[in-house]
Design goal:
- The chain is an alpha+beta fold.
- The protein has 3 domains: about 280 residues, FAD/NAD(P)-binding domain, CATH 3.50.50; about 100 residues, Alpha-Beta Plaits (2-Layer Sandwich), CATH 3.30.70.2450; about 80 residues, Glutaredoxin, CATH 3.40.30.120.
- It has 13 helices and 28 strands.
- It has a 6-stranded mixed β-sheet.
- α1 packs parallel to α4 and α12 runs parallel beside α13.
- The radius of gyration is 24 Å and the shape is globular.
- The two termini are about 25 Å apart.
- Bound molecules: flavin-adenine dinucleotide.
- It comes from Amycolatopsis decaplanina DSM 44594.
């Protein structure tokens, strides 16, 4: 006997997104979160990459846009101490929004609970055991300890993941000694800001906008919001950072003094945070009935992309897990979660570790490397390619039955004309169902798809990329082609039958 379909451990962005996607797929998740209320320490302030398109496809992007804090669109992003300038692109190849993690989590929780998810806060998972039929979590709640049983349990419980440890899954990699401290502070008296963004301080004189490297670390200076300075220090620190201990203005001031050798006056803080980088990936994302997603599965040593990778894990996993629980999954479907998302995590690690190498060197050779890299990024094609790598938009999953260029890629948001009027790929994917999009009147293919439980939509598109597209609930094209019924049959059997 099981109590729910899926136990989700952790109510961060990964766990909440997974819960909502499972509900859309008709499964019953239960979210268990050890904190009685949302953590107060500021974490992410940026949401970027492919997940923004996916949120658009689920009808959530307008809500996320409503949370944006900094009015200046982030058309530049740092890549290991080098600036990637995207202002020359009409449509930036890496989309990003300044959104506070706490606000994002509140929006996702509302979405998940609105779809019928139960989120239990103050309930810590302290033990996990599994057998061939089910997995049981031992939970310490406000009224004592109890057990919950489900066919599957997913550890979305962050970088230190107790679930990962209890499942015996290794987490090899490196924790780097550098600690980053960030302060967004009001401009105080006694400090002049020049038109080019440089600042003038009484003790240290003029400090340039951008990166100042010294023998003890890096001082970064910028501004995203008028009247607010963005300051970051990076120093090697042998101790381990505890995310639950709040950063203070004094701690930032001390760090600046160690890096620059003097004081920078700091105004009232708007946001203070600190983080340390690790490059780690779980050896496997599945151990029997226990799965991992988000930071529990991977830690990336760069800013701005971790939530993208974590929430994308959830979207990839949910429909497969629901199909498995509902007894309609083809053989091996759930194992494609590890195959696809472990490879995606490894690719995200590749670019973020390259950033570590670019960022960490302080000698002339390292400066030369950064200069050459910066020069290469003046080339539009190079900037586009790097942006796509960081965004995760260059992922291509292997797809049986189709050699079409679109197969395995994220489906573009085509404008569509149907008998019922104008629509778009984004609208068709809102319910998170598999879709066969017939753009050329191919009833023989539509019938095959209908028989496999796929929603069929006949439509016209101005620039038709293929006659027919078979789209998975996570937005990836499972098959594209014309009259090849055998290819479509193979794809349907692999993903949906
Ligand atoms: C200062 C800072 C700045 C950052 N900036 C960015 C950024 O700009 N962009 C970006 O994309 N990422 C950023 N990150 C990374 C981002 O915060 C993480 O990638 C993200 O929180 C991971 O989400 P998650 O849901 O996988 O895990 P988490 O957010 O860590 O959530 C895990 C949850 O599991 C709970 N939990 C743990 N153990 C148990 C248990 N035994 N039982 C029940 N619940 C449990 C925890 O309390 C927690 O709520 C930043 C991180 C920090 C620290």
């Amino acid at each position: 006997m099981t109590d729910v379909d899926v136990i989700i451990v952790g109510a961060g962005p990964t766990g909440l997104m997974l819960a909502a996607e499972l509900r859309l797929a008709g499964a019953r998740p239960l979210v268990l979160e050890r904190r009685p209320e949302q953590g107060k320490t500021p974490k992410a302030h940026g949401l970027s990459g492919q997940i923004l398109d996916l949120l658009h496809y689920r009808g959530l992007l307008d809500g996320v846009r409503g949370l944006v804090t900094d009015p200046v669109p982030p058309h530049r992003f740092p890549f290991g101490g080098v600036h990637v300038d995207l202002t020359r692109f009409e449509e930036p190849p890496l989309k990003a929004l300044s959104v506070r993690q706490q606000s994002l989590e509140r929006l996702l929780e509302e979405h998940a609970t609105g779809l019928g998810t139960e989120v239990r806060r103050g309930h810590e998972v302290v033990g996990v055991r599994q057998d061939e039929e089910s997995v049981t979590a031992e939970v310490r709640g406000p009224d004592g300890t109890y057990e919950v049983t489900a066919p599957y349990l997913v550890g979305c419980d962050g970088g230190r993941s107790p679930v990962r440890a209890m499942a015996g899954i290794g987490f090899p990699g490196t924790t780097y000694p550098e600690v980053n401290r960030i302060g967004q502070v009001k401009i105080p008296e006694g400090l002049t800001v020049h038109d080019d963004g440089d600042i003038e301080t009484p003790e240290l004189g003029r400090i340039k906008a951008g990166f100042t490297r010294t023998g003890t670390g890096v001082f970064a200076l910028g501004s995203l919001t008028p009247g607010i300075l963005f300051i970051q220090t990076t120093e090697d620190d042998p101790g381990e950072v505890d995310d639950d201990v709040p950063m203070t203005l004094a701690e930032l001031g001390d760090s600046i003094r160690r890096v620059l050798g003097g004081d920078v006056p700091l105004g009232e803080p708007v946001r203070l945070s600190r983080y340390q980088f690790s490059a780690r990936q779980a050896e496997r994302y599945r151990e029997g009935r226990i799965l991992l997603a988000g930071d529990a599965a991977h830690l990336l040593p760069s800013t701005g992309t971790a939530i993208n990778v974590g929430m994308s894990d959830s979207v990839n996993l949910a429909w497969k897990l629901a199909a498995e629980i509902q007894g309609r999954a083809p053989e091996g479907l759930l194992d494609t979660y590890h195959a696809e998302r472990h490879a995606a995590g490894a690719r995200a690690l590749l670019q973020s570790q390259a950033q570590v190498a670019l960022r960490r060197g302080h000698d002339e050779a390292a400066e030369a490397l950064r200069s050459v890299f910066q020069e290469l990024l003046d080339d539009e094609q190079a900037a586009r390619r790097l942006s796509a790598h960081v965004a995760g938009t260059d992922l291509r999953y292997p797809m049986p039955g189709s050699g079409h260029a679109l197969a395995g890629t994220f489906v573009p948001d085509l404008a569509l004309e149907t008998d019922q009027g104008a629509t778009s790929v984004a609208e068709l994917l809102r319910p998170a169902r598999p879709v066969l999009l017939d753009l050329a009147g191919r009833p023989e293919l539509s019938e095959l798809a209908e028989a496999a439980g796929v929603d069929v939509h006949a439509a016209k598109a101005e620039d038709r990329p293929a006659d027919v597209l078979l789209i998975r609930p996570d937005g990836y094209v499972a098959w594209a082609g014309d009259a090849d019924t055998e290819g479509l049959r193979e794809a349907l059997a692999a993903w949906f039958s």
